[in-house]
Amino acid sequence: MQRHEATRHSIRWLEPNPRLDGTAADVAHQVYRTALFMLEVLDDGIELTAGLRKLREAKDCFVIQALEDSQEGPS
């Protein structure tokens, strides 16, 4: 199925960065799988686009936290 341009644009930014490794990569891949699931079950629309945008924002936060965690090491 052909997706709306806004949907294609949004999903592109959710693709995991291949330079990530460890937990940060795992987090990025899990968020991407969630986005792909949403594309499977939902039609294009303004709420899907908004949700993908918010998911991208959340992914950025989660990945940053994973990177911070890996810098800190165990207590």
Instruction: State Rg.
Output: 14 Å
Please identify the structural class as seen in this structure: mainly alpha
Quick check: average pLDDT?
94
Which parts are unreliable, with pLDDT below 50 for 5 consecutive residues or more? none
Q: Strand share of the residues?
A: under 5%
The total of beta strands comes to 0
Shape field: elongated
Q: What is the terminal separation in angstroms? A: 49 Å
Please summarize the sheet with the most strands.
none
Descriptive notes:
The chain has 75 residues and is mainly alpha-helical. The protein is 73% helix and 0% strand. It contains 3 helices and no strands. The chain starts with a helix and ends with a helix. The mean pLDDT is 94.
How are the elements arranged and paired?
Layout: H1 5-12, H2 22-41, H3 46-72
Brief characterization of the structure:
The protein has 75 residues and is mostly helical.
Keywords, separated by commas or semicolons:
0% strand
